[in-house]
Design a protein that fits this description.
single chain; 286 residues; alpha/beta; Rossmann fold; seven-stranded mixed sheet; two-stranded parallel sheet; 11 helices; 31% helix; 23% strand
Length: 286
């Protein structure tokens, strides 16, 4: 294989008859639109989205953006128990866990976004109860420290997913919250393997304030989105169609063309090499 690599295309250009991806997004509060990680495929009509957003205004905004072809529900997803919901003045940082004010106050450009407003009792919903599907393709979570609670209420759906894209914290921004190590341990126990981080957030400790942006840290990493794929030793258990969907996720969402090619090699050994060859040609590798 040789030549300049071209990634400016969709895997659906190669396999147009491949079924759309089923995406479940927990904590889908929009800023200016849908989450950019899957926005291009959504615009192409290649995603069937089921979104959950606890913030009522954010839920209405997202429903208006998406239209009637997708499902948006105002549920607080968790382990199915009653819990205190901690609403912050910036609703995007609200959580089922209280802000760890002692810790976040150590940083520049962070405390003002995590100031508590009010707390109230809520009934959380299990994802396995809220989504009546046998399988999904992508589970995305961004619930400010409550991701393990989502997994507690979704053993069936999580095990069925091809990819898990979850926010993780490396340090306790919220009191009592699970951290990256806890999420990683759970997902590895479900036969997922860590693939990559999608963006990493940092802040500088006080009193240092860097010129340019208060959001630029030095070395302290705070949070990221972690991406998990099936343990590669389990590929045999997936159908070719499911593996092609995984390739679509890897190519279109993460530009992970090396892993996409690796999986297509496995698919070609079970059927034919036409899709593998077409993908290589499109990449400029053949």
């Amino acid at each position: 294989m040789a030549g300049e690599i071209n990634t400016n295309f969709s895997f659906y250009d190669i396999v147009p008859d491949l079924a759309p991806l089923t995406v479940v997004d927990v904590g889908a509060l929009p800023l200016d639109g849908v989450p950019e990680i899957y926005a291009p495929l959504l615009e192409r009509g290649k995603i069937r989205l089921i979104a959950f957003e606890a913030n009522e205004a954010g839920c209405e905004k997202l429903a208006a953006i998406l239209g009637p072809d997708h499902t948006v529900l105002p549920f607080i997803i968790g382990d199915g128990t009653e819990r205190d919901f901690h609403q912050n003045t910036n609703v995007m940082t609200s959580s089922l866990y209280p802000t760890n004010l002692d810790f976040v106050s150590r940083f520049i450009g962070l405390p003002e976004f995590m100031q508590p407003d009010e707390s109230y009792r809520v009934k959380t919903h299990k994802l396995d109860d809220a989504v009546n599907l046998d399988s999904i393709d992508l589970l995305k979570m961004d619930v400010q420290g409550g991701e393990l609670l989502v997994l507690d209420g979704a053993p069936r759906l999580t095990a069925s997913a091809l990819t898990v894209h979850t926010e993780v914290e490396f340090v306790p921004l919220y009191s009592g919250q699970p951290l990256f190590a806890d999420i990683d341990t759970r997902l590895r126990s479900l036969d997922f393997q860590f693939h990559t981080f999608n963006g990493i957030a940092s802040r500088a400790y006080r009193p240092l304030k860097r010129a340019g942006s208060e959001y630029d840290g030095i070395n302290q990493l705070l949070w990221s989105d972690a991406v998990y794929v099936p343990d590669l030793s389990t590929l045999e258990s997936h159908s070719n169609e499911r593996l092609l969907k995984l390739v679509a996720i890897l190519h279109d969402l993460y530009v992970s063309i090396d892993l996409a090619l690796h999986i297509l090699t496995f698919v070609s050994e079970r059927s034919d090499k036409s899709i593998f060859n077409a993908y290589c040609k499109k990449l400029g590798l053949a």
